[in-house]
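Rotation project, supervised by the postdoc (A.L.). Task for the rotation student: set up a whole-complex structure prediction and record inputs and outputs verbatim in this book. Inputs entered:
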Amino acid sequence: MTERRYWLLKSEPSDYSFDDLMSEEDQTAEWDGVRNYAARNFLRDDIKVGDGVLYYHSMSKPNAVVGTAVVVKEGYPDDTAWDPDSDHPDPKSTSDSPIWYMVDIKGEKALKNLVTLQQIKATPGLETCSLVRISRLSVHPITQEEWDIIIGLGSGG
DNA sequence: GCCAACGTTGGC
DNA sequence: GCCAACGTTGGC
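Outputs recorded:
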């Protein structure tokens, strides 16, 4: 019995925004460029096809969850690591022994209302979520309860 | 294996 | 631009 899990993925909108994702063919993109071991482990080991994704804009005005997506391909080697022309090359990672992993996600829909970091910090049930506690991580596991609260806030209810 | 120095992320 | 938090690196 596989249980659906939920994740929060961070991106700087000036780098790759939720609108950029929704503009892709099939609204699908590789989630590449993660160069942090904790985040890598989630991408490689834990994120499965069908898992729910909250798309969060960092370094933005405002910093906020802006939309939802779904995982359509699970952990596979991030080939941008050994592309010297990519944005995040890492010569230690090779196609024979990859270090970094990525997943593919498909954008679903923009939230009706942004759910800002301020709101998240001020909302009972969210104030201890991973995003608040470990702000530097780019991939966060979230619970179903946290997912439900954020979706509720985001749909204006 | 410890720890200091340094680099990066990201909120403010 | 500053600073806190945390990861990585390298000397010992």
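Student's summary: Residues 10, 12, 36, 58-59, 63, 117, 135-138 of chain A lie near DNA strand B (CB under 10 Å from a C1').
Supervisor addendum: The two ends of chain A are 32 Å apart (CA to CA).
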